[in-house]
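Now read these lines:
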Amino acid sequence: MRITKIRLKNLFYIFIAIVYFIENNPAIKVNTSIRYTFIIVTVGFALCKAQWNKSSKLNGFNIWMALVLVFFMVSSKWSLESVKTIQNVKNAFIVYAICFSVIIMIETEEDFLMLIKSIVSSFTAESLYVLSIVGMDNLGTMRLGVDYEGLELWNANAIASFTAWGGILAVFLIIYSNKKTEKIRWGIVAIFLIVMTFYTGSRKGVIIVVGTLLIYNLYANRGNKRVRNICFVILALIILYIFIMNNEEIYILVGARLERMVQELTGHRTTEQSMSMRMLMITYGMRWFTERPILGYGLGNYSVLFSRTFGLDMYSHCNYVEILVSGGVAGFIIYYSVYVRIFIKYIKEMLRRHNKIVIYFFSILLINTILNMALVCYFDITYITILLMTYLICDKKLYL
């Protein structure tokens, strides 16, 4: 029986890697028969494990997922377009079903480590897939995404989400591993994924990489080591800045966009339409929220409002605004309750004792929460999985 359980877990990690590959690959994801087959089999593995392990029980993340799904499904009753709400709930259900299987399978630190390795391997394979389509000769001529032939369905920020988070998880494997060969292997993977992030030209990707490593290095050590780390981080940022600004390809892809973002945030005028459009979306979103502050307009109906007002079917590019418009105060409290719970757990643990792994995943949690201001991710498989990982660290008492 023990051998069977081990084989089941190994199969699960293989299938979960494939599932993440499919979910992040729009060219394959459209094939629903392939997509649903792998998801059903993966969830099936988890259910078999739950059947064998009678001690398996619901945790806070399970309950949160159920509450979110039920509330937003009910919101179809008062939504502007119930079909759009139901479709969004269906997408969320698929993501949460995958996370449900992960929760069942993760019991030990070894399980958690295998999950991270599976996801990093999946994201690396995805990045190699993108690179194979673009070709080394064409890399850097434009942002990775729709502008390249063969990547018409790919969004640069979507590519950056798995390259950047994959790189950050690979760095964790470097930190955790005690073997030199593993550190080298995961170091190569981390460098590759982070370089691919820069080629997407995604500001969010840069924030994930730089922000997470910056916060971790500032708080991972104490005393003189902290001063040393601060100096190291400042030096690394200066080198990175010089590299970006003096490399024509990287400057065009990332540097110029970061400059415009800083100009916008500091109140200087910029000609970049995307930043101005985002501010317009947030302004109107808050206006619509005040008109239906309690229950909102139904999940996914921000785009309906925007379409009726401006003739463009667009979401808000801000998860906080999207949730407020979709579910009002009630939906916002339900959705972000899990964030509050996780933050409380981490703060208590960090006050209790100094744990570098806890600090690393707290850094991930903080950046994830900040990025909710710049994207809509309430059913994004990558961001929800990252949130789940931060939850599991404290809930399962991993590395504590």
